[in-house]
């Protein structure tokens, strides 16, 4: 199974676990198309692939051991992060800063934790509805990043796209699974 | 009488005369003085242009119009936030697809396709779009015009992919085409057809009806392997051929006849080359059709994730054979564009906000010939002459 298959498989499972209806402007992600479920008008009820609470809880548990400097762009979780670090904008590694909104959709990277040698799926959620936090380090890493024809792996786009407020603020890095 | 007092007395007549002289001065010269009148220049200066998208994510961006010969800035065409740029084939019109969030960082986001008259730098008619357009970094294939000039095509992402078809003459959206799992737009060399790259390695092609309201779809066989060696979305169109490069450095030639895309060639550009060279950047390539040569941003020591790295060299590649004709040191370019004529010029931008100009020798080596300052995320350029 390729890493993209693993990620889309994980996304499918997350979707199944946390399906929620959203406004008609929000659609499903390309993994559905890949599975042969074409999107035509409003025939398919749009859903969100990520449950924002899942990511926070899982990420905190997995991050218990010290594993590097999370305020540096070299930190292992940031292997495909393109954006400003929310932990330097009033948020944390897994929390958006106060007043901002968690993006309803996100891209995913696969990063190796040097502390245990395992590869983790990292959800890079943008935080939305505030000014761009240029006070924070700006990081641009692209391991496993792909163009928009693999949208779930693409980071050259504003992932606040499905939110009511679409101003890009900063980005968090949340561990959501292990890539076996 | 002290020396100080004597000096004061000697200066007294001068001190008294100075205000009188100053008060008379305007009167003496008034009849010779012609006040200046402030106006707005009506047209940009003549000469071939290079257009640079200066994207902003925090507010208004612009399309900068530079003179190809001197790199003098002629005008800025105003855009909204996170815009995409399109220049018409004759260079006389420009388009931008922009976001205009009501409170800039929050609130409803109005998305608009704005047109511009390049000669006067004036904003022309606009079309309000479905609020789905991709808010992405500037990439040429995210906003395109069909070869018959009737339709403008807008890449959407919600993140589900679709394409909005706009009839600028009618000021109307004609349809939205779902393009699930596919991305980027390549107008066919004639008519009102276009193709898009799909995540399974195929290209999907669509032929629009005369009114743009419907489309017929055809799908190619797989032409690249998205798992092992994905292609960059920036392609070069030369006649009925489309050229793409892969992350590892293969040049893929596709025939675009308006129906299904066909793969006709694949060449490994880095076979036998020491140093781990690979393509990198954003608008990382450009072709000169007159010479049949592609110019490509390359960096050494490539690793997984280095595919957006700035150039160390620019390689000139013969399109017909895939042969590397020349390698020029040209550091720091993340995007480039090439003029189409017999004497090509290469223009490139850097992440540090510079526009560079290069002349091209008979041996296809580049020589730096100028630079200018840029603003915003300047990762997309366009030339038409």
Automatic annotation (TrEMBL), chain A:
GO biological process, one term: amine metabolic process
Positions of substrate binding: 82, 155-157
Any Pfam family hit: Me-amine-dh_L
Domain of life: Bacteria
Location in or out of the cell: Periplasm
InterPro entries according to UniProt: Amine_DH_Ltc, MADH/AADH_L_sf, MADH/AADH_Ltc_C_dom
One Gene Ontology term of the molecular function aspect: methylamine dehydrogenase (amicyanin) activity
A GO cellular-component term linked to this record: periplasmic space
Entry-annotated residues carrying Tryptophylquinone: 107
Covalent cross-link (Tryptophan tryptophylquinone (Trp-Trp)), residues: 107-159
Keyword terms: Disulfide bond, Electron transport, Oxidoreductase, Periplasm, Signal, Transport, TTQ
Record-listed E.C. numbers: 1.4.9.1
Protein family according to the UniProt entry: Belongs to the aromatic amine dehydrogenase light chain family.
Functional note: Methylamine dehydrogenase carries out the oxidation of methylamine. Electrons are passed from methylamine dehydrogenase to amicyanin.
Name of the protein in question: Methylamine dehydrogenase (amicyanin)
Species, as recorded: Paenirhodobacter ferrireducens
Lineage: Bacteria, Pseudomonadati, Pseudomonadota, Alphaproteobacteria, Rhodobacterales
UniProtKB/TrEMBL annotation, chain B:
Signal peptide: 1-30
Record key words, sorted: Disulfide bond, Electron transport, Oxidoreductase, Periplasm, Signal, Transport
Subcellular location: Periplasm
Disulphide-bridged cysteine pairs: 182-198
GO cellular component: periplasmic space
Name the UniProt record assigns to this protein: Amine dehydrogenase
UniProt keyword Metal-binding, yes or no: no
Pfam family name, one: Me-amine-dh_H
InterPro entries the record matches: Metamine_DH_Hvc, Quino_amine_DH_bsu, WD40/YVTN_repeat-like_dom_sf
Family membership: Belongs to the aromatic amine dehydrogenase heavy chain family.
SUPFAM superfamilies: YVTN repeat-like/Quinoprotein amine dehydrogenase
One MF annotation (Gene Ontology) recorded for this entry: aliphatic amine dehydrogenase activity
The UniProt record lists the keyword Electron transport: yes
